[in-house]
TrEMBL record:
One Pfam family this sequence matches: LRR_6
Bias (Acidic residues): 506-526
SUPFAM superfamilies per the UniProt record, alphabetical: RNI-like (SSF52047)
Boundaries of every WPP domain copy: 13-107
SMART domains: LRR_RI
Protein name: WPP domain-containing protein
Keyword field: Cytoplasm, Nucleus
InterPro entries named in the record: Leu-rich_rpt (IPR001611), LRR_dom_sf (IPR032675), RanGAP1/2 (IPR045203), WPP_dom (IPR025265), WPP_sf (IPR038214)
Cellular localization per UniProt: Cytoplasm; Nucleus
Highest taxon above the source species: Eukaryota
Example of a GO MF term: GTPase activator activity
Region (Disordered) residue spans: 500-541
Length: 541
């Protein structure tokens, strides 16, 4: 042992850079909250939806981390404090730029926030902030006064979340008509809430007449309970649009008749890149008219027709029509009653969509047959897919081999959702094995509510435990024993990921069992299969 006089005090250096993965995730969560909840800035700039806010937050964090890390490399002997300051400063700056730009939903993968041209604040008039409120003539005159100033340069307007009565509309009409030739983006979603049908229709007609002849690239008329009458109230505006690139008609009561009216009234859809019909009452008959619009829209990059009550016949028609949209990057058909036949039709279309990056097919009643057909199609044509959601389709272990082969070649996958199916442990073993090798970009895996037990949970956990960017494993709603949960935690601790990636287990039933007679009883025997299962691929792949 060294004597006291030989003791030399050691100098400890605390490095502030780089931040831990959990710190980076926490920052993304905080930015998401700042971009999507009311604050001092939200009174001036429009808030983003949760999903868009999260996407922007992740992009901002990645850009700022890279910038600060490069700065740190130039001062390797420093403690990292200046890098931390730069990291914080740039994230704050970019958040404000995103808020100024306002919410945007595009089909294409967005360019990094720092490289995206930002629209200056004086080209956007957004009165949507604050609580939803009725506005009448006097308030409308005050709110829209910036549009009356000579030489103003407003190109984008957002009147969402304000309910216009006849008096306010009569004030707005002449003002909008005076600036319509300079407008390129109009958001009049949710702008007649609480008004009687007659008054709402009159307001729509006033706005439609005022904006007739404008050359818009973006039009949002969502959340207005339009129905056919509402669509036709916008006739003058819709008929005059020859250059639309983005059209949003969500939560609008779009029935068969309303869908027919839309298809008739919009003269040109060749330039459309975004076409969203989420949450309507379209049904099979209405889907036929939507399909006609889709056929005339070859440049669409983002198509959303989720929760529109479309069944098998409409699903087949829509799936076939999508074959013309060869530039499609994002396809969302969730929460419809497509069934197997529409699933088979969709499998014929998918190979025609080589640029597909996000695919949302949850709750379509695809069953094994439809799922297998889609998996085989994706295996050949969608190697670049980043998001695949196929939850709630009554998929069991019989479809697992084809799903596994498909997933094995999707090395760009970032998010996979297989929740609310019936994979059980037998299916879990096969699918988890396909995710083990590669898949370095995988961030989220949701296999909740799949009748998984101890083995299935272990398999999926092993598959993701060492993925460098992985952030969320959801195995809730299954039948994982207490011992199995402990094993899952130990696997995560032994790997590169912490327990932070494990989602809640409040709906897990440790004492539950799959409700059929074929449930696997011998977990140890099943676990041995992990060593022999391989994802088989065709020889010509």
């Amino acid at each position: 042992m060294d004597s006291a006089q030989d003791f030399q005090p050691r100098t400890f250096s605390i490095k502030l850079w780089p931040p831990s993965e959990s710190t980076r995730i926490m920052l993304v969560d905080r930015m998401t909250n700042n971009l999507s909840t009311e604050s001092i800035f939200s009174r001036k700039y429009r808030l983003l939806g949760k999903q868009e806010a999260h996407e922007n937050a992740k992009t901002i964090e990645e850009l700022c981390f890279a910038l600060a890390d490069e700065h740190f490399r130039e001062e390797p002997d420093g403690d990292g404090s200046s890098a931390v300051q730069l990291y914080a400063k740039e994230t704050s700056k970019m958040m404000l730029e995103v808020l100024k730009k306002g919410p945007r939903t595009t089909a294409e993968l967005e360019a990094p926030v720092a490289d995206t041209p930002l629209v200056s604040a004086d080209t956007v008039l957004d009165i949507s902030g604050g609580k939803r409120a009725f506005i009448e003539a006097d308030e409308a005159k005050e709110l829209l006064s910036p549009l009356t100033k000579p030489g103003n340069s407003y190109k984008r307007i957002c009147f969402s979340n304000r309910s216009f009565g006849i008096g306010a509309a009569n004030v707005a009409g002449p003002i909008l008509e005076s600036v319509k030739n300079q407008l390129t983006e109009v958001d009049i979603s949710d702008f007649v809430a609480g008004r009687s049908e007659d008054e709402a229709l009159d307001v729509m007609r006033i706005f439609s007449k005022a904006l007739d002849g404008s050359v818009l690239r973006y039009l949002n008329i969502s959340d207005n309970a339009l129905g056919e009458k509402g669509v036709r109230a916008f006739s003058e505006l819709l008929k005059s649009q020859e250059s639309l690139e983005e059209l949003y008609v969500m939560n609008d009561g779009i029935s068969e008749e309303a869908a027919k009216a839309l298809s008739e009234l919009i003269p040109a859809t060749e330039k459309l890149k975004v076409l969203h019909f989420h949450n309507n009452m379209t049904g099979d008959e209405g889907a036929m008219y939507i399909a006609e619009m889709v056929k005339r829209s070859p440049n669409v990059e983002s198509f959303r027709c989720s929760a529109t009550r479309i069944g098998s016949d409409g699903g087949v028609a829509l799936s076939e029509a999508l074959g013309t949209c060869t530039r499609l990057k994002k396809l969302d058909l969730r929460d419809n009653s497509f069934g197997v036949d529409a699933g088979l039709a969709l499998s014929e279309t998918l190979p025609k969509l080589p640029d597909l990056v996000e695919l949302y097919l949850s709750d379509l009643n695809l069953e094994n047959k439809g799922t297998i057909a889609i998996a085989k199609a994706l295996k050949q044509s969608a190697l670049q897919l980043e998001v695949l959601e196929i939850a709630g389709n009554e998929i069991n272990a019989k479809a697992a081999p084809d799903l596994a082969e498909c997933l094995a070649v999707m090395q760009s996958l970032k998010k996979l959702t297989l929740a609310e199916n019936e994979l059980k442990d037998n299916g879990a073993v096969i699918i988890a094995k396909s995710l083990e090798d590669g898949h370095s970009d995988l961030k989220e895996l949701d296999v909740s509510t799949n009748m998984l037990q101890r083995v299935g949970a272990r398999c999926f956990t092993r598959a993701v435990a060492n993925k460098p960017d992985f952030v969320q494993l959801n195995i809730n709603g299954n039948f994982i024993s207490d011992e199995g949960v402990d094993e899952v935690k130990e696997i995560l601790k032994a790997g590169k990921k912490s327990l932070d990636v494990l989602g809640p287990l409040d709906e897990n039933e440790p004492d539950g069992e799959p409700d059929d007679e074929d449930a696997e009883d011998d977990e140890d025997e099943l676990d041995l299969k992990l060593q022999s299962v391989k994802v088989e691929q065709d020889e010509d792949d």
